[in-house]
């Protein structure tokens, strides 16, 4: 799929953080700490020259300068002042998910023509199963709604083109929700790690 039809990777990541900040009140400081930990855990070869906030000692002038320097770097990333490097995509989207984002990974995958499925996190609470089931109900309900509009005349044909793009998007969302539920059951019930792959640019 062409980038001419889809938002850029950077735009999707920045929008994901913007949504969290607006809807959930996630602060840049909190996100920066989460991202720092994930950068070191997921991309050690790229982060070896970056500060590791978890290894700082007590709060003092030097550690405060280090924290502020990292916060400013994150601010440039989320505000668009600095381009996000490709290797940062997976830590960044995972940090978004740790703060409650559920859409960005799906949108990123669609840029590459793949179906985005949320991988179950090891630390997910039991309530995540209910959230996954709720997502299935919500997304399949959207499919029922738009397809019902298309079938009002009893025929599915080119006259329904005005609903076509929305129907395809809703179906993709429903499939992703079902696959996420499948992955959760596969891991939690069957004891097998889902065969999901991260997609990076």
Task: Provide a descriptive summary of the structure in words.
- The chain is mainly α and 201 residues long.
- The protein folds into two domains: 9-112, no CATH class; 126-189.
- It has eight helices and no strands.
- Helix 1 runs antiparallel to helix 6 and helix 2 (28-42) packs across helix 5 (89-98).
- It is elongated and about 70 Å long.
- The two termini are 13 Å apart.
Secondary structure: elements and pairs:
Layout: H1 9-24, H2 28-42, H3 44-47, H4 61-79, H5 89-98, H6 104-111, H7 127-150, H8 161-188
Helix pairs in contact: 1-5, 1-6, 2-4, 2-5, 7-8
Largest sheet: none
Fraction of helical residues? 55-70%
Which parts are unreliable, with pLDDT below 50 for 5 consecutive residues or more?
1-5
How many domains? 2
Tally the beta strands. Answer: 0
Strand content: under 5%
Supply the number of helical segments: 8
Instruction: Report the C-alpha radius of gyration, rounded.
Output: 20 Å
> What spatial form do the alpha-carbon principal axes imply?
elongated
**Sheet/helix structural class:** mainly alpha
Order of helices and strands: HHHHHHHH
Q: How far apart lie the N and C ends?
A: 13 Å
Mean pLDDT score: 83
